[in-house]
Design brief:
This protein is α+β, with helices and mostly antiparallel strands and 347 residues long. The protein has helices at 3-27, 34-40, 139-157, 172-178, 208-216, 225-243, 246-250, 252-263, 274-282, 315-326, 330-336; strands at residues 45-46, 69-76, 101-109, 116-120, 126-129, 133-136, 163-167, 182-186, 190-192, 197-199, 202-206, 266-268, 292-296, 299-305, 308-313. It has a seven-stranded mixed sheet with strand order 1-12-7-2-3-4-13, sandwiched between helices. It has a two-stranded antiparallel ribbon with strand order 5-6. The chain is globular, with a radius of gyration of 19 Å. This is Cell envelope-related function transcriptional attenuator common domain-containing protein.
Length: 347
Amino acid sequence: MSPVEREDRRRDRRALLGLLVCTALVTALVAGTVVWAQSKIPRVRHTEPAFAGLTDRPARVPGPAGGALNLLLLGTDRRSDVPTTGEGARAAAWEPGEQRTDTMMLVHVAADRRSVQVVSLPRDSWVRVPGHGRAKINAAYSLGGLPRAVETVETLTGVRLDHVAVVDWSGFRALADLAGGVRVRVPETVVDSIRDTTWTAGEHLLSGDEALAYVGQRYGLPGGDLDRVRRQQAVLRALLTDSLHAEMRKDPEQSAHFVTEVLRHVAVDETWSLTGILGFCASLRDLRTADVRFLTAPVAGLGREGAQSVVHLDRPLGRELWAAVRDDVAATWLDRHPDLETGDVVR
């Protein structure tokens, strides 16, 4: 296996496990009560302090909009043979300069808990990293751990983050298979020359290994890494569809088992207790799949900064989006910009 193939496979696992954590937060209490779920789900492992030393943060939003929740989801590229997050962690999740974030999603949950917008931040976005000048956004975690990653995203968006969840890739295959596979629809046949894989047009039910390959492809896709981001979103949508279906809602044991397995591989910030997570999930019990919408931070184009290939964000349109998130009107804003929403079928 070539170095490129090995690196892509590492990234595949981490990216999709990050998506599974989002699913866990939604499915944790699709049935049962907080007290019941607490007896079934293991303790939550906490990250390093995520907000330590951050003093110049966006203000809390007053009024009803202040009831919204903004979660930063990070999938790290730590090169470790043992788990680095979750209940079974046996190595540090962060060491200076050792890893970056391959998956970054800002998850906005409306104050009325009737809608969720998941905004992917392309890992190559060229942004200001406080204290380090301009760099790719995925370098922030490497340079200063969670506080630097949080500060970078808050500086870019002006959105105050309430919580952070971090995952590594350990145990992905079992989790994807536990979900019964991932169902995706491929609009036209695509060849992945790196993995010597052909995705034929039509519907596919992907095993864990196949899902890794699917979300990891960028070569052979017209949009490169941006298309890979959309594939990640498609996989999350498929998992949400399965986890929010009626049968899962009727079966608290099945729901708790799935969430238990996911939480073995996730760490959340020090301010989020298991009780807090379950209470949050309880508030989402009426959420439907159609209420969860996906988009990518607006992009102006691709370019180069020195030897680096980067993504240049559309700053004027981005300012509109982030203002809508802050004001808790992101769903309405997205209605006015349907071209930015990721559809049901991606390349």
